[in-house]
């Protein structure tokens, strides 16, 4: 794998819980080479955000009211297949819905395990 | 439950029997008098006297039947009357064959009379005896032991025959009339019983339907409650703890790289932890307040009142401990009432909870608010209060709502005979074993 990119990764955090958004934003800020592109509190606003701004990575919560994370991922991936989308939730892997592997996300991360190192590693493995 | 019409009591055999005995005695006494006057005025024959004697004996037997009839022993009374009548018929025919037609009727009388009082087997026996007896009478008619027929002038004998015939016929017809009355009363009684039965069945079916509906409502509400708790826990407490976990990892990550920021994150963490604990405590109180288990309604209601959005006063009197299920139902009913007041009663409203238990009326809780009220005719009971009514019904309790627009609302909970909680209910202090031996 290549070494650390100098390109700054712009991360969009999508989660309906403001407490988690704040924590995720703090993690992104603490991670070298990453910056916060923005926050979205629903699948719909995430899809809209991706059209106007240009993030390079999306942290997408699965469990949101309305469109939900998986459907939003599908749409964003259809419009921007180059975008790296990482799904997050508090579910056990065994509890994840079946259509998670086909929506276009590159992987799934347990929310509690989110920290700067994990973020960097995920980006490098892309 | 609507008041049911009283079921008419069945026909009273005693009354009819006494009626008949009276009528029979009157007829027989008439016969005795007739014989006596004939003896004195027309023909001084010993046979006439014998005739009078036979009639008197019959009167005695029939009169004796009154005693078992009063006791309720109708079979014995009827047997006595029938035997008396048969014996009389035979003896009179023997003495004065000219009165044979009247005695024939007298022989038939017992079987017609006994019909409502005896069993089928007995009735069969009576029919058999009557048939035999008629035959016997027919034969006895043609003997000539007594000389009364010769002594009695024929026109007189005929007149006697003709006049006594209707008397006996009247007796038989009286019996027929009574039997008809008995039958009618039986039918009315059966009809009324059937009606009452059908009414009961309808009420039972209604009750069963209500119970089924109430039960499915309770189950549905339980499921809804579970989902609510799951959602509250997931959206509230769990989310806070997850964010906390992320911040903790961040603090560790920053500990060496950026100690100042790490300290800031840790400070935030501390606050978030307090918030999470408070959230869980709030949830737990919403699910089941610990004061209710420990100290019962008398202590839990004032606490709920203090937390209510509407200023609420609580007055309790005579409240003791009750089974947990009952305390829960009453507590959450009060809570529901206060929440409704907070939602609908308006800003200036206040509320009062009055809880009393006395041995006559049972447990009664009245929740009043001074709010805007509503029109009960046009508002259906909300789902929350329906659920409360269902839960109270399990303990034979009732929920009554009284409200008028602009006059506030009053909700009355009544539980007529609340069973007291078993002694030793609720957690007490743990006994610390002070007898620490070697």
DSSP summary, beta strand count of chain A? 5
Shape of chain A: globular
| Mean pLDDT score of chain B | 84
The neighbouring-strand order within the major sheet of chain B is 1-2-3-5-4
Dominant shape of chain B = rod-shaped
Low-confidence stretches of chain B: none
Average pLDDT, all residues of chain A: 87
For the largest interface, the chains and their residue counts are: A-B, 17 and 19 residues
Strand order in the largest sheet of chain A: 2-1-3-4-5
Low-confidence stretches of chain A: none
Order of helices and strands of chain B: HHHHHHHHHHHEHEEHEE
Number of separate strands of chain B: 5
Briefly note the structural class of the backbone of chain B.
alpha+beta
- Quaternary state of the chains: heterodimer
Strand proportion of chain B: 5-15%
Describe the protein:
The complex is a heterodimer of chains A (126) and B (438). Chain A is α/β, with parallel strands linked by helices. Helices cover 34% and strands 22% of the residues of chain A. Chain A has helices at 18-30, 43-52, 69-79, 116-124; strands at 9-14, 34-40, 57-61, 84-89, 107-110. In chain A, strands 2-1-3-4-5 form a 5-stranded parallel β-sheet, with helices on both faces. In chain A, helix 2 packs parallel to helix 3 (69-79). The mean pLDDT of chain A is 87. Chain B is α+β, with helices and mostly antiparallel strands. Chain B has 3 domains: 13-196, no CATH class; 221-287, Single alpha-helices involved in coiled-coils or other helix-helix interfaces, CATH 1.20.5; 292-436, Heat Shock Protein 90 (2-Layer Sandwich). Chain B is rod-shaped, with a radius of gyration of 46 Å. The interface between A and B is medium-sized, with 17 and 19 residues.
What are the main properties of this structure?
A: 126 residues; alpha/beta; 4 helices; globular; B: alpha+beta; Single alpha-helices involved in coiled-coils or other helix-helix interfaces; Heat Shock Protein 90; 3 domains; rod-shaped
